[in-house]
Amino acid sequence: MEEDIRIYVEDDAGQRTELIGPTDMGLNLMELLKASGYDIMATCGGMALCATCHVEVLAGPALPEPGDDELDMLETLPVVHIGSRLSCQIRLTPRTDGLVVRLAPTGA
Question: Which residue intervals define the domain 2Fe-2S ferredoxin-type in the entry (predicted)?
Answer without folding.
Answer: 3-107
